[in-house]
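Teaching note: in complex prediction, the entire set of molecules is handled at once rather than each chain in isolation. The prompt given to students was simply: 'Predict the structure of this complex.' The entities are:
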Amino acid sequence: MHEMAVAENILALAEEELARLHLSRLEAIRVEYGALAGIVPEALRFGFEAVVKGTAHEGVRLELVCLPLRLRCAFCKTSFGGEGQEALYQPCPGCGEEFGHSVEQGKELILSRIEAS
Amino acid sequence: MEIPVVRNVLEANEKMAAHVRRQLGGRGILTLNLISSPGAGKTSLLERTLHDLSGEFRMAVIEGDLQTDNDARRVAATGAQAVQINTDGGCHLDSNMVLTALDSIDLDGLDILFIENVGNLVCPVEFDCGEDAKVALLSVTEGDDKPEKYPLLFNLARALVLNKVDLLPHVDFDMARARAFASRLNKDLDIFELSCRSGEGLEAWYSWLRTMRAARQMA
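The expected output is the structure of the full assembly:
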C-alpha cells in the first residue's frame, strides 16, 4: 500500500506546477508507471481520491498509463519486450542468453502531464 | 490549460536520499538497506552480525517497524547503537525518516549503518533511503518462487541472504530454483546461504561486509 505515499507525492508535485503557473485547480493528471514499478492502479486511484478529497482539486481525472517492460540483453545487446514480468526470465530472442537482462523501461514512475485552470 | 510536466513522482524522496548518501558517504560509512518479508530473519541476522563483528567495526542500526521498539531493544542488547522508527502503519521507510533518525546516531567513527526496513517485499523497494546497497533476505520457510513474484527487489539488490538453511531437511524449498531465478534477475547478485540459528554460512557474509566496507572507505 505504498500507493498512498505515491498519491501524496503526485499531488505535491502537481501543486508545485500549479503555483509556478499561477493556476489554482487541477482538472486532470497523467501518471506513467513502469510494469515493474510495483503500482496497483486501483490502489493508486483509491489513494489519490483520498488525498484530493476536500481540496480544490476534488474530482480531478487521474489518467494512468502502464509502460511495458523493455529489456536489453547484456551479451548481444538485443532490445526486446514483454507484457508482464515473466519477460524477465525469457531467453533473449537474439542469442538465447537467459541471464543478466538489463531493464531499459519498466521502473518509471512519472507525472507526465497536468490540465489545470 | 494543458501542461506537459515529466517529473519523477518520487523526486522529493530521491533528493533527500542523495543528501543522506552524501552525509554518510562523506564519512566513509557503509550503509545497507535490509529488505525482506516479515519473519525472514532481518533482526536475527543483525543480532549475529553486531555480536560477531563488534570487535572489528563500529555499527549502528535504524529499525523500521509499524509499531513497538522490540527490534531496537533486541539489537541494542548487543551493545550497538539502535534507533527505532515507528511508521504507524506505513508500509516502508523513506529517506526523510532516515535523515531524521540520523540525528539520534553518533556518526563519529561509525563503520557500518544498517537500515532494517519494514517487513514487506514490495513497497520498501520503491523508496531509496540513501543506502549504498540493498540486501534482500529470504528464508527457506517461504516460497522458493519469491524472486519470480517480487522481481524488482532481486533486480536492485546487491546481495541476497538465504536464511534458515538449517531447516532445509524439513521444508520443500528448492534452493536451486530460488538461486536460478534470482541470478537471472541480477547477474551480479552475491548470494549467501546461511543460518542465523546454527551459524553456518555466516563467515562468507562477514567477508562480504568487510569487502564492501573497504570499498566504501576507498571511494
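Point out the following to students. DSSP finds two helices and six strands in chain A. Chain A has one domain: 3-116.
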